[in-house]
Target: Mab-21 like 3
Amino acid sequence: MEGDVEDCLLSKVDLRRQWISQMVEEVQQVVHHLTTEISYQDFRFQAVPYCDTYNENIKVLAPTQFLITVPMRGLAGYREARQQRWRYYSLKGARLPRPLQDPEGLQQWLEVEQFLKSPGQWHEADVNIEGDIVPAKVLQVFRKLVENAIETCHLSGRVRMLMDHLVVRVVVETSAGQVELQLTPSVDIPTAWSKKAQWPSCLKRWPSPETVQCIKSFGFSLLACSSYHWQLSFLRAEQVLLEQLDEDGGCRRKCFQALRQMKEDVWCPGTRPVITSYHLQTVLFWTCEKYPYPKDWQVFTKGFLRLVRKLHKCVSQHFLKHYFVRKSNLLQHVSSCELDALAQTLAFFLKDPQISLP
Model:
């Protein structure tokens, strides 16, 4: 790789930042407008705030693919479930002959009794079955509210619902082009750390014990994006970890930004890429843990290629452990053919690491 590669990549990174900032600005105006109306119609859904700086409810997965978490209101005083029980219900109310499958990896049940405070609306049949708050029922209610809010807010010229059997997706027109949003109801649990997240491992030098304590204080969230099980999310904790990457003066952030730029421009472009920024962020965290010292992150080229090699290994093996819940494989449900094609592309690059950006 030539000496001016760093400048070339990081100039593209700066242009991307300006472009994404403009889209986030326009998207959050629309989302704030919609969710304010939704919150007015249903107490259980909270408006996504408008922020002049970083908005923790907006996660950029790719330049035209955003995850929007919509906070849910009224549930407080979370505690882990005290005992396991079998579930025999279906979404339509019929009794099943066999129990539902237990949650795996990043999934868990959510019972209304796990909260010390739960207003009566959370006990109603539109979201609750046999004491469980069921994500598919929540999404059913939420989808109807989104459809009505688009009409009420006179946004049908800018916002279009996408057909999806479960999650709620919309397309928003911005001045820079179309952006696809996944609108996901979220139960925030800032007072606890999930027992499924056995982190950090013993004898790890990165991050520091002080950083670990800080990160765990942000708790976790549960996202409604499947039928029966809620998905664990650590977006706040992960953002804090990202913000504190280079407190020792290293170049981890620059290496990550360059990796993301190459992924988006060259290796894996498109509106719904097989690998998102979230996957790359996880690759970064694992690599930082393996190479914990400041001296490991002083030379940009070495750090960048280290991340590429880790990405290539994960894609080739179709296996990328979630950073906090290590029994979960983030590539489990990703297209094998697309992963194999990306692995081949990365292998070619690693043989001759030349940067050729569009």
